[in-house]
């Protein structure tokens, strides 16, 4: 067992007495505090695995979801309410938790794994589950980076209330974009929607809600964003017709970017196999290309990125990790 004394790794989740301990070799380290990571933690604890969980937050992308109507057991629940339920259940088990830390690197180290955080702290474990989810994909257009937090947002659930009576635009016509429009219907004055696709790609129930809003929502399909304009705050957006190349400027005060997500897989790049989109390749047991290294949830190649699927994958990963550890002890 490596001696990690003096690493300073002692971060305690508010309301808990247990923190992740330096100088200790865990059976299992879980990276990520979303539905996959939290479910994995509960299943691991029920198997009496000495478990540590490290995450920048508790809830993950669930915190960015407003209305959830398809999680079994809840006809309706908000993302924050569901995340709170997950956290409450995790607290019932003897799991060491560090919140506010991001694991920057996971690497095999002999028969164990070494995890290093972005602040230089380290811990060791016999097995690891990576459940780091995904993050918002930026547009990469002029004005975007400069105006983030000043009218440019990647989270309608978080920021929609800041735009009462304003004209806004939602970039993206998939489920996340349509959900953002629905969230904005009761707040904004006018909502524009832009997407390179020729039509909505969202669930029909969401599209129906938007259609019921009538002229309040105006769509620009087959268009792309060329530039976000503004000095101190967003003042407008330039759209380009992909067929004709014609550009037009719309005066808006808010830009909500909902064009997909990027896997948070950098911590195992060059260690585990990734696909062309950067997702961690896993088998039906959540096993990666490295024995003892498992992955679960949206960061993996498992299709259909849904909360309930991520939770189920987290359970599978914990059970697979348990089997792996028992096999090694045998």
Characteristic key phrases:
330 residues; alpha/beta
Strand-helix topology:
Blueprint lengths: L24 E7 L3 H12 L4 E5 L11 E2 L8 E2 H12 L5 E4 L3 E7 L2 E6 L4 E9 L3 E3 L15 E2 L2 H4 L7 E5 L3 H10 L5 E6 L8 H8 L5 E5 L1 E8 L3 E8 L5 E4 L3 E4 L3 E3 L29 E3 L11 H23 L1
Parallel strand pairs: 1-2, 1-8, 2-5, 8-19, 10-17, 11-12, 11-17, 12-13
Antiparallel strand pairs: 3-4, 6-7, 7-8, 9-18, 14-15, 15-16
Helix pairs in contact: 1-2, 1-6, 4-5
Describe the structure in your own words.
The chain has six helices and 19 strands. β15 and β16 form a beta hairpin. It has 330 residues and is of the alpha/beta class. The two termini are 19 Å apart. It is 21% helix and 28% strand.
The end-to-end distance, rounded to whole angstroms, is 19 Å
Number of strands: 19
Q: Output mean pLDDT.
A: 92
| Order of helix and strand elements from N to C terminus | EHEEEHEEEEEEHEHEHEEEEEEEH
Strand content: 25-35%
Low-confidence stretches: 1-17
Give the helix level as a range of percent: 10-25%
Q: Rough shape?
A: elongated
Instruction: Compute the number of helices.
Output: 6
Instruction: Please give the largest β-sheet.
Output: 7 strands, mixed
- Multimeric organization: single chain
Gyration radius, in Å = 22 Å
Structural class by helix and strand composition: alpha/beta
What would a concise description of this structure say?
The chain is built from six helices and 19 strands. It is α/β, with parallel strands linked by helices.
């Amino acid at each position: 067992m490596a001696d990690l004394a003096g690493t300073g790794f002692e971060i305690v989740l508010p309301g808990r007495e247990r923190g992740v301990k330096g100088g200790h070799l865990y059976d299992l380290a879980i990276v990520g505090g979303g539905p996959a990571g939290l479910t994995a933690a509960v299943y691991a604890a029920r198997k009496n695995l000495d478990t540590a969980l490290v995450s920048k937050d508790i809830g993950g992308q669930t915190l960015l979801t407003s209305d959830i109507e398809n999680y079994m057991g809840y006809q309706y629940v908000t993302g924050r309410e569901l995340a709170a339920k997950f956290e409450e259940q995790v607290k019932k088990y003897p799991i060491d938790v560090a919140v506010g830390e991001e694991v920057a690197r996971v690497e095999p180290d002999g028969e164990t794994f070494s995890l290093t955080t972005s602040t230089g702290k380290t811990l060791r474990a016999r097995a690891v589950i990576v459940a780091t989810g995904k993050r918002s994909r930026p547009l990469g257009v002029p004005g975007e980076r400069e105006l983030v937090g000043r009218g440019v947002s990647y989270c309608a659930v978080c920021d929609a209330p800041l735009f009462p009576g304003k004209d806004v635009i939602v970039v993206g016509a998939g489920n996340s974009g349509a959900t953002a429009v629905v969230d904005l219907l009761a707040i904004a004055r006018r909502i524009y929607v832009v997407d390179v696709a020729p039509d909505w790609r969202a669930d029909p129930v969401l599209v129906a809600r938007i259609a019921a809003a009538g002229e309040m929502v105006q769509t620009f399909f087959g268009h792309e964003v060329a530039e976000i304009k503004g000095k101190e705050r967003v003042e407008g957006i330039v759209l380009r017709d992909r067929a004709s190349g014609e550009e037009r400027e719309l005066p808006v005060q808010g830009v909500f970017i909902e064009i997909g997500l990027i896997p948070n897989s950098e911590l195992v790049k060059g260690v585990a196999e990734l696909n062309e989109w950067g997702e961690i390749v896993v088998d039906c047991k959540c096993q990666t290309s490295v024995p003892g290294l498992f992955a679960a949830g949206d960061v993996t190649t498992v299709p259909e990125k849904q909360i309930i699927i991520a939770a189920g994958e987290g359970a599978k990963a914990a059970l697979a990790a348990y089997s792996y550890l028992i096999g090694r002890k045998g």
